[in-house]
Every structure is written in structure tokens, then in C-alpha cells.
Amino acid sequence: MEGNLVKDSPAAADPGPGSAFRGVFRRHAAGVAIITASYHGQPFGFTATSVASLSADPARFTFNMARGSSSWPAVANTSFVGVHMLGLDNQALADRFARTSDRFGGDHWSPGSHGVPLLHGVAGWLIGCITMRLSFENNAVVVAEVIEGGTGADGAPLLYHGGGYAAPTDYII
User: Which residues form the Flavin reductase like domain (predicted)?
Assistant: First the structure.
């Protein structure tokens, strides 16, 4: 088995832990999702790579966000959120929710249960009832219990890796 072990020598020392942190996570591929919520009748949303399943029974998911985000007031003050998993054909939607303020202009969404904005044409979506918000410094971890969901067309997921969007590839060792 010796031949299958990867032996890397440590890279040149980074100037600090923040630099190492950024470098390590740039090498970590993550699925791309959009989180949505409604607050005072207005839709809010943002692109996220921090979505994860927390438990299957009961079905719960979690995500992280900055409390300075323009969407934080909605997430902090509502009971329900939506999570939308994106496929390769949703890159423009990911960009729209990451880089523009006009996130809901157009017909790419409609109001769902509990007023949660639902995005059309995504790989899958869930509506969750927020069960916990854990604030830590300027960030928050949010936990939601799934109350509803659906899947879209099957296809490759949209990934974020190395500072940009990526597609999964077959890799055989």
C-alpha cells in the first residue's frame, strides 16, 4: 500500500493563519446554493457555499452567513427560509444573487409556502422552519427543519472551487 500514499512536503510557510485558511479553502470544492427569505413582504436572497445536511430524521439543514449581509435582517427576523441547490445551468442565477442587487426582478421566482421565494429551474429546493440561530462574532450559523421540498431535472451540480465556478469531473485513482 506504500505506493498509494501521498507524501507532500509542507509548502512554504504562509505569512499567517488567515492566508493559510484562505489557501486551504480555495482548494476545497463546495456545492453552490441560494438561500431565500421574505421579510415585511420583501424577498431577500444570497448565494452560499456553506449549506450542509445536518440530520435526516428529522430532516434538517444548516448554513452560515455574515450578520453584515443585506439578507441578515430577513433571516434574523423570519421563521422560514428556502435553500435552492444549483446545477451547472444555474451559474447566471448564482452570479445574480452574489453580485447584483436586482436579485428578484423578473420571472425566475415565485412566492412559495410561508412567503418564501422559490427559484425556478433549480436542481432542488427545500423550505425550512428556522429552529436555531447561533451568532458568533460577525457571523451566524442557521439551522432549519425541512417542511417542504422538491427536485428539478437531474444533472451535474454547480461547484465553487479555486475562486470560481467549476463542474465535477470523473477522477479515477
Answer: 25-167
| Confidence (pTM) | 0.87
Q: Cα separations (Å) of 72 from 46, 58, 66?
A: 10, 25, 7
In sequence order, which ranges of 5-158 are alpha helices (DSSP H)?
17-26, 72-77, 91-99
Instruction: Report the half-sphere exposure of 169 (CA within 13 A, side-chain side).
Output: 6
Burial 113-137, CB ≥16 within 10 A → b, else e: ebbbbbbeebbbbbbbbbeeeeeee
C-alpha cell at 55: 440530520
pLDDT for the residue numbered 126: 99
- Confirm or reject CATH 2.30.110.10 for domain 30-151, answering yes or no: yes
Cβ neighbours of residue 45 closer than 8 Å, sequence gap 6 or more: 34, 35, 36, 37, 71, 97, 103, 104, 117, 119
